[in-house]
Structures
1.
Amino acid sequence: MKNTLIFFILAYIPLAVNATPFSWPQLTPKQIGSKTYVIEHGPHDENKKLSRGFHNNPGFVITRDGVVVIDTGSSVEIGKMILRKIEKLTDKPVTHIFNTHFHGDHWLANQALLEKYPSARTIAHPKLIALLKAGQDKFWIDVFTKRLGDDFKGTKAVIPAEAAASRDYKIGGMTFTVKLFDQAHTATDLMVFVKEDAVLFTGDIVNNEHFSFMGHGNFKGAYEATQWALAQKPKYVVVGHGRSGTQDLIPAFADIYKTLRDTVIKYYDQGLQDYEIKPKLIAALSKYKHWSGFESQVGRYASLLVAEVEAEQFQ
Ligand SMILES: [Zn+2]
C-alpha cells in the first residue's frame, strides 16, 4: 500500500509542477549501427498538438571522445528532449553538431545542446551560415513562432559557426563523410555518411511517405544527390522526414524526382501551362497520394518545375 502510494506521488509530480509538460514518452533512440542511433519523429506535423513540432529524425553517434549529433529539431524543448535521450545512453559530452540544411526544423533545437555543451562545434553548409546570418534566422523564428505557439517559447536562433567542406571528418575513431550539395532540397544541403556503421543521413533530399516543401530547391540537383547517396552503399538510411530504413528508400525517392521532372518536361514541351500540368503530375504520382504533404506540395511542384525547366533552356 505504502509503495503504491509513493508510486502514484512520483508518477504525478511532473504533472503537478507543469500542467502541460513537454514529453515525447513514446520515443526511444533506435540503435542503427554499432555506435549510431536515431530518434525517430513523433506524430506528423499535421497534428501539432501531438507532435509539438517534433517530426524529423535527429541522429547521434557515440564516439570514443564524445557524441556527434546530426540534425536537431524545431525548438529548444526538442533540443532538451534530444539531450535527455542521449544522456540515458552515455555520459560523454556532445562535441559536434551537423545540420543538414537551413529549414528551421533541422537546426532551431541547436540552442539547448549548445547551452549544455558550449564548446561543441556546429558545422553546416557555408551558404546556410551566410543565409541565416543575413536575416533568414529571423524568418525561421517567425515561421515556428506562428506554427508552434507556446511550444516554441524560449527558443533562440543559434547559428552554426563552422563552414563544412565535402571531406571526411575523423572524430573519436569514427569517419564522417560529409558531402555538400549547392542545389538539391535547398541550396544549403549536406549529407553525412557514418562510414564504419554504413549509416547515411540524407536530410530532406530523401524522405519516406512525405513530400517536403521544395520552394528553395532544385529537382534535378536533388535527383543527382540521390545518386551520390546510393553510391555510398549505405546499410541504413536516416531520411529527413518519415521512418528510416534500408537503402531501398533512396531509389524510391529518386524515382519521385525523376517522375516529376519527366512529366513536367513532357507536357511543357507540348506547350501546356503549369496549371494544366498540375493534374498530370497528380496522376503520375497517384500511388503516393496517401503520403503526407501530397495535397499541399505536389501542386506547387508543377510551377516550381516549370520555372526550373524554363531556366535550364536559357543556360
Ligand atoms: Zn525538414
Note: The first strand starts at residue 30 and ends at 31.
2.
Amino acid sequence: MQQFSACQAIVCDLDGTLYLESGPIPGAKDFLNRVCESGRQLYYFTNNTSVSRQKWIDKLATLDFPASPEQLITSADCAEAYLRRHSLYPTIYLVGNTELKKEFVSRGFICLSEEQALASEPLAVVLSFDTELSYQKICICYELILRDIPYIATHPDKLCPVTRTTFKPDVGSFIALFETATDGRRPIIVGKPTMEAVRFISDKANVARHKIAFIGDRLYTDIRMATTSGMVSVLVLSGETTASMLEDTMDQPLIVVNSVADLIKYL
Ligand SMILES: [Mg+2]
C-alpha cells in the first residue's frame, strides 16, 4: 500500500470500479472526494466510446462525483491524439454512434458519411463502440480495410458490461469479425491497455508513472496497462473479476481490494 499512498495521480476506470448499473459503489463518492482533498490529481478513464464526453460528464455529475471535462479520458481521446500525431487528419471514416461523430466533427474532423466513404479517400478508418452498427457500415469498413487505409480501433474490450453478470458485444468482437473477413487484418488499438493510452495519461498527469495509480476491475485492460507501464495497479473486486479469474491470470495486480472504499484510509 505504500506505493499507492505515494501516488500523486489517481486514475479510475468507471464501470465496475465506481458504479454498477444499480448505482454508485458504496463509498465511491467519499473515496473520490478524499483523493481531491489530499491534493492528488484525479482522472477518470473509460474505453466506452458509445457515448460522448458530455454524456460521461453528465453521468458523473448525476452520481455526485467530482468531475470536470479535463478529468475525463476516453479511448476516443486517445484515437484523436493518435490520428493527429500521425497526420491522419481531418478526413476519416468513423464507425461510430451519431453522438461520437458529432464530437469528432466539433474537434475539426470530417467524418465521411456512408454514402461518401467509398467514393472518397479517408485518411483512416476508425472503429469504435458503435451500437448503431449496420450491415452497410460493416461492408464499408471491410472495403476500406482491404484498401490498406490506416485502421484504428478505440479499444479491445470483447464485451461491455450491462450488469455485473450480463454483457453485450463490444469493439473486440467487432475486430474479430473484420479479422475473419479480411483474412487476418488487425487494427492499431489506442485505448486501455495500450501504450497510446499510457502516453495520454502520462502527458496529462505529468508525473512519473510509478506515481500514478490505475484502479480498475478488468484484468486484460485496466490491470494489464498498469502493470506493463509501471503504474501502480489496483484491482477492485466490485466489477467483473472474480477470485478464480484472478488465480488464473498472468495479469497480476500489485494491490487487490474489494472496492475503492477500502482505499480511503491510505490517502
Ligand atoms: Mg470496468
Note: Residues 13, 15-17, 216-218, 239 surround magnesium ion (CB under 6 Å).
